[in-house]
Every structure is written in C-alpha cells, then in structure tokens.
Design a protein that fits this description.
Elements: H1 9-16, E1 27-29, H2 36-52, E2 58-62, H3 71-81, E3 97-102, E4 107-112, H4 122-137, H5 141-167
Parallel strand pairs: 1-2, 2-3
Antiparallel strand pairs: 3-4
Helix pairs in contact: 1-3, 2-5, 4-5
Length: about 180
C-alpha cells in the first residue's frame, strides 16, 4: 500500500488494467515523443547514471497516463507491478527509481524504492521535478528528463557524501555535467 495515497496494488490493478511491458534498456516511450537522437542521448545519460550509482536502477517511461488518476498513483502501480526492479530489490533493498513523463499533460513524476526513501526526501524529488517545469511547458521533454536526471545525480552524490562523512570514508566523485542546450 502506498503510504502517501493509501492505494493498494490490488485496487490499482483492477482499475488500471494490464501491466504494460517496459523496455529492459530503461527507456520506454509509448508516446513516440523521442526522436532517435534524443533517445540515444538519454540512453547515454542513463548509462552514466548507472555507472555512477550501480546500486540503483533508473527507468524512464513516456506515456499518456489516464487523467482520472494522479500521476503518482500510476507510478506507484508501475513501480510495483512492472519489471522496474530486479527480484533481489525488495522492500528496503530497493534503491531503484522510476521517472514518468506524460507529454499530453506536460507532467513528470518520480517514485523511489523503499531503500532510497530515507535519503531522498519528497521535497528534494519535487524540487528536481520543478527544475524541469520550464522544459515541460515548452514540450522539450528530452531536456526535461536530462534536467531531472542531473538533479537526481546531484541528490545521490549528496547522499553518498553525507554517508561517507558519517562513516569516515574517503570519497572520490566526478562532478556532474550540466545538460547541453538543445
């Protein structure tokens, strides 16, 4: 059950229908929003994210989500029913993330696994989404996703630094590159 909205998976599955098949490479575009060059660029950015944070998997889905339900409800349902995370990533071990983009409504949403919830506050995730709002409003969805991924990388780096400092670990981080202009 989602602690924020009270939605449980049985009820969600009953109203949202069959679980869509997501692409195993991390980007699923049911809306055909992405041009091939944009898709390649997002793949490279996801690959870089995974190299920097191998403990987490990040998936991006573009879809026209049913407006009868909040985007958060769709993402909760997808995160828990579609193969976003591996079998070993259960409960507190789940450090995966799902970014949903609805081009028809100019919306983006994020959901994180239970293992990241103590480290990535909802306010921080909302801030990452707010940074992308100008690109979303201009229908520049690749730039919006890159902005969100950059913000998530910075958040994750901050978490790693804080934990490293707490534990007295030596840290070597490469700074995140800002997304290029389109």
């Amino acid at each position: 059950m989602c602690p924020q909205c009270g939605l449980d998976l049985d009820r969600a599955s009953a109203v949202m229908g069959p679980v869509p098949r997501l692409s195993p490479d991390g980007i699923t575009d049911f809306t055909n929003t992405l041009r091939p060059r944009d898709e390649k660029r997002l793949f490279r950015t996801l690959r870089d994210f995974h190299q920097r944070f191998p403990q987490s998997r990040l998936a991006v889905i573009f879809s026209h989500f049913d407006p009868k339900f909040p985007l958060r409800a769709h993402l909760f349902w997808l995160f828990n029913t579609a193969p976003v995370s591996g079998e070993a990533a259960k409960q507190g071990e789940n450090r995966d993330l799902l970014l949903g983009v609805d081009p028809g409504r100019h919306l983006a949403g994020l959901i994180v696994g239970y293992g990241l919830e103590p480290f990535l506050s909802q306010d921080a995730l909302d801030h990452a989404l707010d940074l992308a709002r100008p690109a979303l409003e201009k229908d520049d969805y690749p730039a919006a996703v890159l902005t969100i991924l950059n913000a998530l990388s910075q958040l994750m780096e901050g978490v790693c630094r804080e934990l490293g400092d707490m534990l007295g670990l030596e840290q070597n981080f490469v700074l995140v590159n800002q997304p290029d202009e389109y």
